Amino acid sequence: MPSSGPLAFPLQALSWLGNQGTRAIAAVLLVAIAVPPVGALTRPYVTEAIFLLLCISFMRVDVAMLRAHLRRPALVIAATAWTTIAVPALVGTLARITAVDAAAPDLYLALMLQATASPMMASPALAALMGLDATLVLITLVTSTALVPLTAPLFAYALLGQTLSLSPAALGLKLAGILAGAVAVATVIRLAFGITAIRRHRAPIDGFNICILFVFASAIMAHFLADLVAGPFRMLGLAVLAFAVFFLLLGTTMLLFYSAGRERAMALGMMVSLRNMGLMLAATEGAIPGTTWLYFAMSQFPIHLAPQLLRPFAERLRNKQLPPGETDHDLISRARE
């Protein structure tokens, strides 16, 4: 990183921000709430912000680590099937049983868009910050994201019907276009600068990632204070529901994959519970009802706060990341043979 020149200070500032870890993720949400006028400026750029977050995540994919986990694909296949197929089916079934689909169709739409979304692209970074198995999260994230343009339209057709203004086919095409475009841009960046340079500038890239996350968070939370004053009990109810869904997915996933090891189970639980609702917003171009948008806003609280709140628990599992005597370095070495 250059120590002088016009880019020195911005790079240093981004590096400092990137080194704040989960604290910065939580602070982003609080600042976004505190300055609602910024949200009015950033809201038109939600799609672009999500696209940049995807580009950064694909740009940083470690191919050797992906190959290493593909050598033992059973766990990846099971986790991918769980997050892309079982979770939407589970949420849809619970919503039907509790009659949420009939009583609150806009909320039902929000829950189904959340359930059919792929995990957040920031999941591997958050897993690494918490000391969890980021490589397992990364490969499962890649496989499940690749399937979303196929699975999301199917669930939209089967469970949403006319609730979604966008047709299932159009949703699939938009998701595929966004993801393919992000992969293409990320590939160009990797070829131009090289993976070594990308790794060397991890901190400023993390800082830039947090800045983009702020654009998304401020857009989502632009009307939070006004909505809170207008309907505090409604907002409280949506917040409770958002945390309940988060911990339901986290706890169920941890129990389901407990046999793979507690640390891996928690890593997968974090990934599954952190859904990329921003991708669905980008695909629908923000054309969703007010209650759906409000639920997306309240869901930012568990997304931004849980990594910081759960980090002490995750630290207790640091020594159980891989089977005895095996390390990430061993996996990477075998993949490169």
Topology diagram in text:
Elements: H1 8-18, H2 22-34, H3 36-42, H4 46-59, H5 63-70, H6 73-97, H7 100-103, H8 105-116, H9 123-129, H10 134-160, H11 168-193, H12 195-200, H13 202-220, H14 224-230, H15 232-256, H16 262-273, H17 277-284, H18 290-298, H19 300-315, H20 328-336
Helix pairs in contact: 1-13, 2-13, 2-19, 3-13, 4-11, 4-13, 4-17, 5-10, 5-20, 6-8, 6-10, 8-10, 8-18, 9-10, 10-11, 10-16, 11-17, 14-15, 15-16, 15-18, 15-19
What can you tell me about this protein's structure?
α4 (46-59) crosses α17 (277-284) and α15 (232-256) packs across α19. The chain has one domain (28-336): Na+/H+ antiporter like fold (Up-down Bundle), CATH 1.20.1530.20. The chain has helices spanning 8-18, 22-34, 36-42, 46-59, 63-70, 73-97, 100-103, 105-116, 123-129, 134-160, 168-193, 195-200, 202-220, 224-230, 232-256, 262-273, 277-284, 290-298, 300-315, 328-336. The chain is globular. The two termini are 32 Å apart. The model is unreliable at 320-337 (pLDDT under 50). The protein is built from 20 helices and no strands. It is mostly helical. The protein is 79% helix and 0% strand.
